[in-house]
Amino acid sequence: MGMGLAMCLGCPAPEGPDPDEIDDVPRFDDDPGWLVTAHAHNDYYHERPLLDALAQRFYSVEADVFLSSDELSVAHYPWEYYGSLSALYLDPLQKLVDSRGSVYGDGVPFTLWIDIKESSQDIAPMMEQVLSRYDMLETFTDAGGRSGAVTVVLTGDAANKQSYVESTDERFAVRDSNDYDAGDPDADRQWTHYALNWGNYVDDSGQSPLTAAAETTLGDIVAGAHDKGRAVRFYDTPDTEDIWRVSAEARVDFVHTDDLEGLGDFLRGLDAPIP
């Protein structure tokens, strides 16, 4: 993992990607195929946050955040600091959407996962303040909403992500659940995703390939989530081609990785189209 950015709270904030680097993000007009499932875990750990994932044509990235005085700070731990959510992610994505209509110019929506890493009750109002600046975002109301080039999914702290989606009539993000139960209600316009720990739900051995029983479990969970109208991703998955393959076969919506190039090459090499 690249660790080239400042990692202390006392360090000055990076300015975000260079405008020329944003302009150099590839444009596409073809079907992304399996790449639409590619998810960059803890994306800010890479040498070029966001840009390295975009270079591989990923359609989903994840940024962990803490509350600062007037922004959302990207970091996995409170003593780290990689920059603001706006500078590293929201501003460059908006720039791409403004010039292309979508992130890659292909009309395919992009997903930004925001992992809330603290329990402060002030984070939901700050989330609203920050996200409301960006007209690229899909919006949600209980009756519908407005489509957008970028969808924000809140994950992490359960109380804060629920507080945000319940706080306003029109929302700039939806939430996930980190727990799955076959008896969960159907999706609504607040709760639309699952993000599940691989070891807790599929296989705790950390090995691949999976046993037949674990593959069955994976398929049952994904099918159950889809029946409820929700998308699903797993985290803490082994970064191997065997796991990527069974995830694709099970129709996992977001295939998680820290190995951007490896997963990108693997998904580009899959022949069968997504049904």
Radius of gyration: 18 Å
CATH architecture: Alpha-Beta Barrel
* Secondary-structure content class: alpha/beta
Tell me roughly what share of residues is in helical segments: 25-40%
Query: Which sequence of SSEs, written as H and E, runs from N to C?
Result: HEHEEHEHEEEHEEHHEHEH
- Mean pLDDT reading: 92
Can you lay out the helices and strands and say which pair or pack?
Blueprint: H1 19-23, E1 38-40, H2 51-55, E2 60-67, E3 72-74, H3 85-100, E4 110-116, H4 123-131, E5 139-141, E6 144-146, E7 150-156, H5 158-165, E8 174-177, E9 191-197, H6 198-201, H7 212-227, E10 231-235, H8 241-249, E11 255-257, H9 260-268
Helix pairs in contact: 4-5
List keywords for this structure.
275 residues, alpha/beta, 19% strand, 9-stranded mixed sheet, TIM Barrel, 9 helices, two-stranded antiparallel sheet, disordered N terminus
